[in-house]
């Protein structure tokens, strides 16, 4: 007689073994999270070293986000197909190898390629690490597991900009990627030695059908759309045949992907759940939350280094201190949600705070110092903390337990897609807005104005050098105004969808539903 899976299940780890498992999983998750944000403070240095513009170097960030958009919804399926442990080890190895080649890149597009591959490996690390930590604790202590993982979620993005600033300022930019290599090697060894396989994992491979057309259409659709958003402005939009071709490819790919997911019995992303509960409306909020998070973290380092004269270390520190407030908030919010509190008040507070953040940030100027930016960044962190877990909780509201994994995977994918869209939008918006502000500023330079004459005299008289300095001053002011308008645009996005919270109202969950939602979120992909 064959033993049951329950009988085959390994005993829960305790003592030192549990500590090793938690440290291993947190290390892998934090490594991935750090790499999402560590690049932002190094964009100026990477652009200078590789001879690229800030607009083009944004692909270093968006290529990673696009890879995440493609791989995140497939993480649960791939873990089931190959076995969670094998898939986890393979992802860490791929992430580590890609990190090495990112550091070794000698051209922008070589770096973009390896960042994409790094994103493929990194897409599995966060959710799989969460499941591994969850399985290391008995049911009664899984709230502790969620709290530990929540601390890691905050720790990674907090340390990323600071470490990036210190590394870039004191060493070569490539070391922001090299630091992943030893961490990845240690995490791989510890995973192989100490993390047990789940009962029956990887044994259903012959029963699982892979939706290859769906994966292909998703990759083509998202990749083509991102190219259009990134390059449309510089290529004069539909005056360019390349943009026209990629637009048609994006529409065809995304429409084909949606059709494929609706007709196949084995969809890679179960988009049918969008019609259930409040998931359809929740994904709108998740998309905008992704826009707000990625756009603000992308624009801020470029602004303060280009305009306000911050060093990379100053930039990292200015992001570090405000982010620390999220560390105690995250487990508090998780605890409230775990006992059945409605996510709606948290979402409303987070949305309103993001609106205030956007418009307040738009009032700052080129003379602002770290403390002037502190309050704005603190609002951003508070808003993100208020939105992250509650939006996942809201995504499963009104759904049956079997739909939870699909809903959470889809919600997470939409958030990453919003981030990629936000960065592309910011690039396009800054380019157009800069040109308009520069035109307005130059048109207001009246040669008969005594103030202009006085300014030129201070610069050395009406000489070529003085006009060059004036041109640089106009350029700097135009960029400042464009960046500030971008922050305001973020506020407008959140303000525009705020009325939709009316459609997020749901009935109060039962204790059983709360427990199922907590388990689903702990194993979310």
UniProtKB/TrEMBL annotation:
One of its GO terms (molecular function) is transmembrane transporter activity. Residues 21-509 form the Major facilitator superfamily (MFS) profile domain. It is found in: Cell membrane. Its main location: membrane. The chain crosses the membrane at residues 16-38, 58-80, 87-110, 144-163, 175-196, 208-229, 241-259, 279-303, 309-332, 344-361, 373-392, 486-504. NCBIfam families: efflux_EmrB. This is DHA2 family efflux MFS transporter permease subunit. It comes from Spirosoma arboris.
């Amino acid at each position: 007689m064959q033993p049951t899976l329950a009988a085959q299940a390994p005993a829960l780890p305790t003592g030192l073994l549990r500590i090793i498992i938690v440290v291993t999983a947190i290390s892998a998750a934090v490594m991935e999270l750090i790499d999402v944000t560590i690049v932002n403070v190094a964009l100026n240095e990477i652009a200078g070293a590789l001879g690229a513009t800030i607009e083009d170097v944004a692909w270093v960030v968006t290529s990673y986000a696009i890879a995440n958009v493609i791989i995140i919804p497939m993480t649960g399926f791939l873990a089931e197909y190959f076995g969670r442990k094998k898939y986890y080890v393979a992802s860490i190895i791929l992430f580590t190898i890609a990190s090495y080649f990112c550091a070794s890149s000698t051209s922008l597009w070589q770096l973009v390629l390896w960042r994409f591959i790094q994103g493929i490996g990194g897409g599995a690390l966060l959710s799989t690490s969460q499941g591994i930590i969850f399985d290391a604790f008995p049911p009664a202590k899984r709230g502790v597991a969620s709290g530990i993982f929540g601390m890691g979620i905050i720790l990674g993005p907090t340390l990323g900009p600071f470490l990036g600033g210190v590394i870039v300022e004191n060493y070569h930019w490539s070391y922001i990627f090299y630091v992943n290599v030893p961490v990845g090697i240690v995490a791989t060894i510890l995973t192989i030695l100490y993390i047990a396989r789940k009962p029956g994992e990887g044994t259903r491979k012959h029963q699982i059908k892979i939706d290859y057309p769906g994966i292909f259409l998703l990759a083509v659709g998202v990749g083509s759309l991102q190219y259009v958003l990134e390059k449309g402005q510089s290529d004069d939009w539909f005056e360019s045949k390349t943009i026209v071709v990629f637009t048609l490819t994006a529409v065809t790919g995304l429409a084909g992907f949606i059709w494929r997911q609706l007709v196949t019995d084995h969809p890679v992303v179960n988009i049918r759940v969008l019609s259930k509960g409040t998931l359809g409306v929740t994904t709108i909020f998740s998309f905008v939350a992704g826009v707000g998070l990625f756009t603000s973290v992308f624009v801020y380092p470029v602004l303060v280094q280009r305009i306000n004269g911050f060093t990379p270390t100053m930039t990292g520190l200015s992001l570090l201190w405000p982010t620390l407030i999220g560390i105690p908030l995250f487990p508090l919010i998780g605890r409230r949600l775990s006992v059945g509190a409605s996510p709606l008040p948290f979402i409303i507070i987070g949305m309103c705070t993001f609106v205030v953040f956007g418009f307040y940030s738009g009032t700052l100027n080129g003379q602002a110092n770290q403390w002037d930016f502190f309050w704005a960044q603190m609002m951003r962190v508070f808003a993100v903390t208020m939105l992250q877990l509650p939006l996942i909780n809201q995504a499963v509201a009104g759904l049956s337990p079997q739909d939870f994994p699909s809903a959470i995977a889809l919600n997470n994918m939409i958030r990453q897609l919003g981030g990629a869209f936000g960065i592309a939008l910011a690039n396009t918006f800054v380019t157009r807005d800069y040109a308009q502000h520069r035109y307005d500023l130059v048109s207001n330079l009246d040669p008969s104005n005594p103030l202009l004459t006085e300014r030129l005299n201070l610069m050395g008289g009406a000489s070529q050098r003085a006009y060059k300095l004036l041109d640089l001053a106009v350029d700097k002011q135009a960029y400042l105004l464009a960046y500030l308008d971008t922050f305001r645009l973020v506020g407008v996005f959140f303000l525009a969808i705020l009325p939709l919270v009316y459609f997020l109202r749901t009935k109060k969950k039962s204790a059983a539903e709360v427990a199922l939602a907590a388990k689903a979120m702990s194993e979310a992909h």
